[in-house]
Model the fold of this input.
Amino acid sequence: EVQLVQSGAEVKKPGESLKISCRASGYSFPSYWVAWVRQMPGKGLEWMGSIYPGDSETRYSPSFQGQVIISVDRSTYTAHLQLSSLKASDTATYYCATGLWLGDYTMAYWGQGTLVIVSS
Amino acid sequence: DIQMAQSPSSLSASVGDRVTITCQASQDITNFLNWYQQKPGKAPKLLIYDASNLETGVPPRFSGDGSGTDFTLTISSLQPEDVATYYCQQYNNIPPGGVTFGQGTRLDIK
Done:
């Protein structure tokens, strides 16, 4: 069974950094792209970027380029999303997703989401 | 960047109604268009991929159509469990690649 399990909710202060994890199981992690999607409270879905675990090739949305870092640890089948210099506007739920054979950007399997709250 | 104009932003319909949601791309995206359903507090769920292919396990009352710039998601007979927000998503495989979501359509029961 394909599963993406994300790390738990976080409460951070402005200026702090954060690394969210997404652990994959049930499929060949190195072979398929993993995407990160942001959803701010009450708002829509925003693609942040995607990574190919096999060689760590990464593609970022222009809106998030330079603002976040997406990485993988192939030994643990885990993708990471790193946010730094957090602001209140980073408060959101962050999802990881993969499409497997359906395509690089099709998101057929999703993590449960990680809620990040940034507040002083 | 390719923009996606999704309409309506909200919709109220009766059980059994036929419901259609549209998405228009700012340029030709051939059939690189997916549809997702999101229920409150849950992760999105893929319904339709590549404009018209029904994802495994999705009820056949859901269908997708279109190519180029104009796309539709249709629910042939609305059920109470279909209350959700629906998003279209375009993708571009040509490097550097990219994804854009529509703004979402909130669907509820009248």
Q: What stands out?
A: The CA atoms of residues 13 and 119 of chain A lie 5 Å apart. The mean pLDDT of chain A is 97.
